[in-house]
Amino acid sequence: MFAATALLIARNEELIFQDRGVVAVSRDRQDPETLVFSWRSKVEAPMARQFEEAYREWKGEGRRIIIDLHSPGGAIAEGEQVIRLIDRMKRTHEVDTRVRSRRACYSMCVPIYLQGEERYAAANARFMFHEPSAYDFYTGEKVDQPKFERDLVSRRYFDRYFVNSPMDPVWRDRLEADWKGKDLYFTGQELADQNSNIVTVLE
Hints:
Layout: H1 2-17, E1 24-27, E2 34-39, H2 47-58, E3 64-69, H3 76-89, E4 94-99, E5 104-106, H4 109-113, E6 119-121, E7 126-129, E8 134-135, E9 142-143, H5 147-163, H6 169-178, E10 184-187, H7 188-193, E11 201-202
Parallel strand pairs: 2-3, 3-4, 4-6, 5-7, 6-11
Antiparallel strand pairs: 1-2, 7-10, 8-9
């Protein structure tokens, strides 16, 4: 029964994220000087291009951008392009990130979320951390890498996105010790309670 429930949850999340690769831009209802860039899909092309086009169109507006995320993660290279664009956004706007109630930020979504100056999350927002995996470019199937190669890629990923981040160092060390070969899930409430400094504002 538990396995069937987990399968249903996973399938529902796939349907929620599926084919939503468009940045929706709106003004915050309470503050018209705040623009909300919403992304509800995988971290994969055309995410960076979509954010680039949205920023180009709206960069003369407002003073603040909230990047509202709901994503199962995806490609490291695409996420890196998005992070570079966020650095450009910070030259003209305050940039915050948010994961709302019953929304998720998994895998490569987390390094993007960590780019926010303030990082908002609902108590029941879901976050997931795991070591990066390699996938075949043509088939999309997961590749079974040699251990030394997995460890090297994992180390580089961890150093690039978590060591150089606002994450609390003590919490980060626990994450590094615990995430080997696992998917680690936390709610926004748990991250706040554990003083991870991943979530800075609990909604």
